[in-house]
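Crash report, auto-generated. Payload:
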Amino acid sequence: MTERLTRQELVRRALAGGALLTVPGLAAACGGSSKSAATSAAGGKAVLPKHLTFSNWPLYIDVNSKTKTHPSLVQFEKHYHVNVTYLEDINDNDSFFGKIEGPLSQGQSINRDLIVMTDSSGLPQRMIQLGWLEKIDKSAVPNMKNLQPTLRHPSWDPNRDYSLPWQSGMTGIGYDPKKVGGDISSVKDLLTNPKLKGKVTLLTEMADSVGLVMAANGDDPGHVTDASFNRAIQTMQKAVSSGQVRQFTGNDYAPLLARGDIYACFAWSGDMVQLQADHPGLKWVLPDTGGMIWTDQMLIPKGGNVYGASVLMNWYYDPKIAAEVEDYVNYICPVVGADKVLLKTDPAVAKNPLIFPTKKMLANVHEFDAKALNNPKYKKAFQHLIGA
Amino acid sequence: MTAFLHRRKGAIPYLLLGPGVAWLLVFFVVPMYYLGKTSLSSGLFPLFNFNWAWGNFRDAITSYQTQFVRSGEYAGIATVIALVVSYPLAYWIAFRGGRWKNLFLLLVIAPFFVTYLIRTLAWETILADNGIVVHTLQHLGILGPDGRLLATSAAVIAGITYNFLPFMVLPLYVSLEQVDQRLIEAAEDLYASRPLAFLRVTLPLSLPGVFAGVLLTFIPAAGDFINAQLLGTPQQYMIGNVIQSEFLSVRDYPTAASLSFVLMAAILALVLVFARILGTERLTVAA
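Recovered output after restart:
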């Protein structure tokens, strides 16, 4: 079940692959114009680089609180004799994209081998279209077979040629039952209940806010039309104009909710697990009309070391390693088998439905229409709503 | 080199100007050129074609008129409040500060030791719905039981005023400090009452400081977006918020660039009108 490859095995595998496959076929499988892919195609030898750089979001990996190191990465470094620079420099999809857009558009490297960006921002899709991503060297990622079946064929990257999930998360309603005076599970309630006037925040991510409201309107967020989009915008506009909605936020809704400045909000599942540690009274639910699901994707930017990055991806698709990460990170694990490992080591995490959601929950979440994500008309309309 | 300077004394001023001019050229003129080019382009990210798209400017102004007007209002109100608060403060430090003057000035700029973002975030806590300020105002009946400060215009203006206050105090202090005490004494010797001496002597002499302080406060305040973002709601968003989201979220660079130009032009126009009112010779004194 676990396939942890050693270097020799990898070389053997590449040689065998080279013998079986035609050269163009292998080149297609390994992708791109990257150096390592080229060498593995030509010489049948893939060599790990001495150094890899991995950019990720803050607090998104296991941490040893004493040494401030990341045990899963330290093991990787020891096992493969590769130094990994781990940067926590992605705070916001748009801002990070703004940072890397300059060099990538000029064909320059951004000095990173692996980055993590959210699919519902539309940016991973965009980067594929722009030719700014390298294809994954799938021969180096046999553990890809552990990917959750539901995540295998996203419409924007149907064969997972360019992307592999790091974590997923759900968007639903976070609230304080004491302030709300009971439970709340309807988006309509959030947007119209006079008891919550001025005590509600929505999210600045279009896919999250529009998606939840669309589902509440009885429309399908997975197939966005002009009519359903405009309906959602109008519904929110009414709530903004009436003063029901106080603000649109990124994850800064967390302190507002904890302090009691707001009573209920659109919120991300993982944030709420973290918040509940200090504020056990707070609750998170999927709205009765359905929540949203999104996935942060590992991507190899142009100029990154394809082979090295692919081996690193493979490492994190080993259920044992994935379980180590999941014990610290409170989002949804994309690796099959990690829950079985955790059942032995930390059953509370394995049984937390916000980390390993039930089938019923997964049936009640939508993925936002990938085609609508980068529609400039929609983006403008949404920015108008949240900024005017 | 020295021989060269001896032969051409006329070159010295230009050599002295050199670093400044080079700086302006590289970090102001060149970016301005690209910004101007982008503002007249059209197309979708990442391919924008330069085609003299003057319509961008019309669209920018008509779509975001509200935010332009709001930016002017908020920045204007904040500047006036800052002036009213700062003048007595600067006056007191300049004339009554004695040997503690430098300490008081240090206290004025002390907040700058903490970053802008953190200071504004602190205001979130100060003005929180369950915070001490809101509770006190509710007790006094100034704020209704459901009233709030956070996420209102008042909070945004307060934040701007607070953040730019030192820019008002310092130039005021400098100009008041330079006022020749003997002129005030002379006015009083000539039977001017103290208020009259202030109005006819001190105030006019401090106008260059007022001018500089108003500019240093108003200009950054009009382009600010952090205060509206953290202390306001969409109903308080200023033009800075719009430009930021057009650049980073919508990625409509031409609209963002033309908005930036309109903002610059509007501020420049206001400054010129203001300079006219206070007199151009004062402008040169202040500068």
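Post-recovery validation: The mean pLDDT of chain B is 89.
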